Amino acid sequence: MPKLTKRLVDALERDPDRDGFVWDTEVRGFGVRTKPSGTKTFIIQYRNEERRTRRFVIGQYGVLTVETARDLAKKKLASVIDGADPSQERRAAREGMTVAEVCDWYLEEAEAGRLLGRNRRPIKPSSVSGDRSRIEQHIKPLIGTRVVAHLKLADIERLQADIAAGRSARKRRSGRGGQTSGGAGVAGRAISTLRSLLNHARRLGIIEHSPANGVRVIASNKLKRRLSAGEVRHLGKIMKQMEREGEHPTALAAIRVMLLTGFRRMEVLAMRKEWVEPDENCVAFPDTKSGAQMRAAGDAAIIELMSQGQRNTSPYVFPADWGDGHFIGVVRVLDRVCARAGLEKVTPHVLRHTFASIAASLGFSELTISGLLGHGPRGVTQRYVHLDAALVIAADQVSAEIARLLDGGELLSMKQAKRGRYMEGMGTFVDA
């Protein structure tokens, strides 16, 4: 076999049943391995001081040229003569990585967009942010100093039990940010994060194996809180009172839109005016938790969005009070409104649940409600060549019912209002 060259390596063909090896004639022990998948990697093969044959991967062909790999091979083989064992050294380094070090590696790679999520796309920044919070608040404080190679499945499940019991909880701090609590839901999400990042590390060769494989994630009680029709009516009354008293109008409008659409909090707050398509009764999101989506919005919701859009020149429907960004303070206003109304445990997600609950009470199927909420790729809105007319009808009826409740039973003339002039800053459409 001749000296390894780029032409020779390019010409190597894979064997679907086993690894293929070709050795260099210039540097003894230097070669290239072709996996059944077609991946080609440069390796060295040598005997250590115990006369045991070892192989050491130098790097992947394409990342390294043949010449660069040959130079690295010479250096590694020269160290073997001096008594070094590169393969054992790498294995020891991997086995010595702590949980904190692997977590830091994961966060760095994920934030740089080099790790792909379940949809084969870079993990979303919002997901990485949630992972960072769970890592810093629960995983690192409890097992950050542990060596990954020494962990067993029982250790991971013990970690889960400790988080659920509140061992990593801490009191509310002053200023922004809430308290860190325990519970089944927190524990389950933390273990899911740990399992995912360890699998990324194992797949890319950072660790030899993941001790979280096979872990049973604790079941949590799903959020069941939703507002009844009476509570929605009372909430609407209190919101009107507080608006007259000077409560933040942008936040109140955002709360109303969340109820009228079932959209997620950040889908509403970060909504841009050009995404709103009143003629199609929809909002075209370029990206959501489930990817790009065209989501149906009833006339009541469209009217609210149009009305909000005329009040500012920002590209956002709900602009920030200062700067060029979008509004973010809706949670605090919702808390104040609910405190005045005497409603407990109401979050933006509860408003989303309420939309789904009212849709169900009107007789719509789970599949239709899933489409309205923008759930995963099983939903009927998910190919987005066009928006299903049935979803528009459903969204219109649900939003009209919620608007009726918020307005104390006074049903607005939606079609008449919508046929008016589309507000400046959101585009125009002519009176029919």
From TrEMBL:
At the top level, the lineage of the source is: Bacteria
Tyr recombinase domain location is 222-397
User: Where is region (Disordered) located?
Assistant: 166-186
Give the InterPro entries listed for this entry.
Answer: CB, DNA_brk_join_enz, Integrase-like_cat_sf, Integrase_catalytic, Integrase_DNA-bd_sf, Integrase_DNA_bind_dom, Integrase_recombinase_N, Phage_Integrase
| Entry-linked Pfam families | Arm-DNA-bind_3, Phage_integrase
Q: Which residues form the Core-binding (CB) domain?
A: 97-202
Q: Known CDD domains for this protein? A: INT_Rci_Hp1_C
Give UniProt keywords alphabetically. DNA integration, DNA recombination, DNA-binding
Comp. bias (Gly residues): 176-186
Family membership, please give it. Answer: Belongs to the 'phage' integrase family.
| Protein name, as recorded | Integrase
